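Input record (one chain):
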Amino acid sequence: MTALSYAVQLTQDLVKCPSVTPAEGGALDLLENLLTELGFECTRLPFGEGDEQIDNLFARIGTSHPHIAFAGHTDVVPAGDIAAWSSDPFAGEIRDGQIYGRGTADMKGGIAAFVAAAKNYIESGKLQGSISLIITGDEEGEARFGTSKMVEWLEETGQQPDFCIVGEPTNPEALGDMIKNGRRGSLSCRLRVEGVQGHVAYPHLANNPVPALFAMLAPVNSAELDGGTEYFDPSTAEVTDIELTGGASNVIPQAASAYFNIRFNTEHSVDSLKSWLEEHFERMAKQYEVSYQADFASNAAPFVTEPGELTTRMQQAITRLTNKKPSLSTTGGTSDARFICKICPVAEFGLVGQTMHKIDEHVAIEDIDRLADIYTEMLAELDRK
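The corresponding structure, as predicted from the sequence alone:
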C-alpha cells in the first residue's frame, strides 16, 4: 500500500479525533504535539467556565514581521445517522482517491494542509517573518469562547497578525475556484404574537393572532431587502418556522410564533434592522390589537476585505499552481473571519465544500496535497520584508 503524504495522514489522524462541538476529542492535543516538534511555541487558551469551557490553541514560530496567520477550527458538527454512512464517520477511510469522515472538508483537511505547508516552508529555510495558527474548538457551536476570545487575547499580548488566511472550504466545484473576502451578517428573531383564544364558530369573541403574525412577517418573508453592493449580493430574509398554540382545527389559537433569519450586507447593521422591524411590529400590533414579543439574536456583523495585497498575493499563488484565477466572493454563511477582520486583513481559501456537513462527507486526497502546495506558495508570497 502506498504511504500517505504528511497532509493526508494528518487529515486522517484528525478525523479520528471525535471533536464534535464542544468536545476537544484529542484534536488540539495532536496538533500541539506536532507543531511543538516543528519548533512552534504553543499556548492553550481555554475560555468559558464549567461545562461551557472551550479549549483553543495558538501556535507561533518566529517573532518578526510579516506575521502570517492561519485560522481554523477542529470542532465538527454531529455525524447524524451513523447507519447512513458508508463507513465510520470518525475513521478517515480512504477509497477511490477520497478520504471519508466528519470534518474532512470542514475543515480538518484544510488544517492538515496548512500544517504541512508550514512544515515545508520552515524546512526550506526561507522563513523571514513568523507563522502562527489560530485554532479553535468553537466554530460550529455558538462561537462565544473560540476565535472571538482568541482575537481579544492576541490584541492583549500584542500578537496581531499582518495577514490571516482562514481555511474554510471555499471552493464550489474545484480547487482554485473562489476566495472568500467577506461575509454577510446574520440576525435571527423569534416573534410571538398574543391574541385571544376562542371557538372558530364565534370569531367575534376571539382575536386570531395568525393574521397579525403574517402581517408582521411580510417584510421578511422570502424578501430581498436592498439591491446589493459592489461586494455583496442583496440582503435576504427568510421565515424558517411557525408555531401555533391552538392544538385543534376548531380552536382559534391564543398565540402564534415564527422564527426568521436575515442575512445582510454592509448596507445594514444589527441596530438598524432591529429598529426598522420593531417600528413595523408596533404598527401592526396596534392595527390588529394584539401584543407581541420579539427576541433578536446576532453574533455576526458583515465585513469585507477589499481587494489588495492579501487577496492579490493569494490569487497569484493559486493561479500559479492551478492555472485558475479565483473569484472573490462574499457568498455563503458566516465564518470566524468576522472576528479576525477586527485585527488584520483576512481572506478565506480551502478545499471543495460540496459535502461539508453531509452524510459521507469526503474530499479528494489529491486536493489536500494540492492545497498544501498552494498554502506553501501563499506563505512565500506573503513572507516578504
